[in-house]
Amino acid sequence: MTQQHQYKAIILVGGPSRATRFRPLSLDVPKPLFPVAGLSLVSHHLAALAKVDGLQEVLIVGFFENSVFASYIENANNQFPRLNIKYLREYQALGTAGGIYHFRDEIDRGNPQQFFVMHVDIACTFPLQDMAEFHQRHRGLCTMLSTKIAREQAKKYGCLVRNPDTNEVLHYVEKPETFISDLISCGVYLFDIAVFDEIKKAADNKKSEQRLDSFANNVDDRLSLERDLLRPLSESRKLYSYVTEGFWKQIKTAGSAISANAAYLELQHHNNDTRLATDGQGGPEIKGAVYIHPTAQIDPTSKIGPNVSIGPRVVIGKGVRIKDAIILDNVTIDHASCVLHSVIGWNSRIGAWARVEGTAVSDHNEEIMKNGVKVQSITILGKEVSVLDETIIRNCIVLPHKELKASYHSQILIGSEDEYAKYWIDWFLDTKGNEYFCEVDEDFILDRFNLTGLSAEVPHYYLEALDMITDNLDEEGLEEKVREQIEKSARHLFGLIHARFVITSRGLMKMLDKYKRAEFGRCPRVLCNMQSLLPVGLSDIPMKKTVKLYCPRCEDIYNPKSSRHGAIDGAYFGTSFPHMLFQVHSNYLPSKSTERYVPRIFGFKIHEIANQQRWQDKAREKFEKKRLEKQQELDNNTGSRQLKKVEDINSLKGPNNASIDKK
């Protein structure tokens, strides 16, 4: 491809209100600039783009402050001299397609024929040159990079069905409610420049829908690439799929950085990258793919790898063992310590004979809290965390500036109340009494369509409550009374959002997991044989009825055992949730209980005649009681009439009659 400026590229990096699931690592460095395998996430994208023939300009689009990317852009232009790299800041969050359309003049400058679009929160082999050649052959409006994943995880992503002969996409759905395909979108696209006409049509269609919506003030006016553009393109047969055989990882949580780090290191090792450390004489023992920054000091007796990245100015003592880990800048690890499946934050210190260990899991993007308990995951230490000698930290997330003087297991460790507030949903779910709730996906909360009408249900501090839930509330200068009211509104708003989320596909799956583990309790009825229960509301109107527990075997409801659970508003689960769950997951619906308790005396069933005799005796007693009550009422009425008759006779006697009587 000899024509210059034939391609451009756009990297979508989002903004500071995103990446909350990447905390505590994103508290100090934006996720796009977080180092993985010796390079920032966005640098891996740039390295792949630099290999595309005819591509000379890359536009990084987001709504971070310009100052966040200023120094990086300068360094990136020096690192990739063939690319002209710019940062374009959105004036507000416009959505993935909205940001592209907003900067269409900048993209069109130089008359490129096609442009790549890449999400920053993915790790991939990025076969961009092969995509470009494939795109030239079919000449559709868009080529989508695709990959196959496990069937049970497919619904978390955009799923597509394609024609295997032509690779034409026949159907595309973003995060479908039911299984469609195990072929998903990788978040990398190649568009013809003519796609701007299609984006304009999508924007016009969305505006038309909003005008017809009676709640138009609350709908999401952002334009989504996946929801608003790709599906119409598939329906008009203008979308094609290029399937990659290489690795693909999504980077949502802090723990997912470990799997991305391992994948990139393995790729570099396969490509014989000279940046990787080797097991040479006089140096530490190196196992597998390991990146060590030139300024790091590693004791020769230590053992490093596989899948380890060590940042600048790190000091590692004698006999240290590190495996499947990211060690960030200025970390000190004293002698005989062990770090496994962990990320060690900037300026942290690990004492001698200490052990920092996480758990290797298949899906690092799963929620970190279930039933108020932290699940098995990668261990994350935030910035400037100190672990004292002979201390074990296993399966924990530690926020910045924390000194750990004792051992901890499966906890979220905080340094102060302010830092805790940055994890509002985690804090809420971890609070005793809130074990019935599941974690609501961040994307669900940020999609304003899902919040339609809730501002009327939360009349006080609605926007502030939403900011608190999404960890974006600036609490500086707030009075304590105002903060308490916002906190109260945030709890109520989260409950209302929760009621809507639990009847979605993702919500049902999360609640089903809790149901299978009997986290809501078991039926107190003996003949239900410890059947698991589900929470249910008796009213969808808030503050009417508290939550009850529904047994699908006896089809009855019960009060929660704990008074804390008994005080939860039933509207936070709704009247439909348990029945919706069994409609979708009918294989988990137990058979209805037909067994009833049979009264016995000395092992013999009570005969029906005895039961009838007891009923007759009870009926006679009831009849006799009613007869006596009626007789008493009659006697009282008779006495009253006689008394009234005497009073009437006396009233007829005047003064003269009284004197006659005396005579």
Secondary structure layout plus pairing:
Elements (H helix, E strand, L loop, with lengths): L6 E8 L20 E2 L2 E2 H9 L5 E8 L3 H14 L4 E6 L6 H7 L1 H5 L5 E6 L2 E3 L3 H11 L3 E7 L9 E5 L6 E6 L8 E10 L2 H18 L12 H11 L3 E5 L4 E3 L5 H15 L14 E2 L3 E3 L4 E2 L4 E2 L3 E3 L4 E2 L4 E7 L4 E2 L4 E7 L4 E2 L4 E3 L11 E2 L2 E2 L4 E3 L4 E2 L4 E3 L2 E2 L4 E2 L3 E2 L2 E2 L3 H5 L2 H7 L11 H5 L7 H4 L4 H8 L10 H22 L3 H12 L17 E3 L11 E4 L4 E3 L4 H4 L10 H8 L15 E2 L2 E2 L2 H45 L2 H8 L1
Parallel strand pairs: 1-4, 1-6, 4-5, 8-12, 14-17, 15-18, 16-19, 17-20, 18-20, 19-21, 20-22, 21-23, 22-24, 22-27, 23-28, 24-29, 27-30, 28-31, 29-32, 30-33
Antiparallel strand pairs: 2-3, 6-11, 7-13, 8-11, 9-10, 25-26, 34-35, 35-36, 37-38
Brief characterization of the structure:
This protein is 33% helix and 21% strand. Residues 653-663 have a biased composition (Polar residues).
Helix content: 25-40%
CATH third-tier fold name of the largest domain = Spore Coat Polysaccharide Biosynthesis Protein SpsA, Chain A
The counted number of beta strands is 38
Beta-strand fraction estimate: 15-25%
Low-confidence stretches: 1-5, 214-219, 369-373, 416-422, 658-663
Pathway: Nucleotide-sugar biosynthesis; GDP-alpha-D-mannose biosynthesis; GDP-alpha-D-mannose from alpha-D-mannose 1-phosphate (GTP route): step 1/1
Region (Disordered): 626-663
Domain Nucleotidyl transferase: 8-214
Domain Mannose-1-phosphate guanyltransferase C-terminal: 286-411
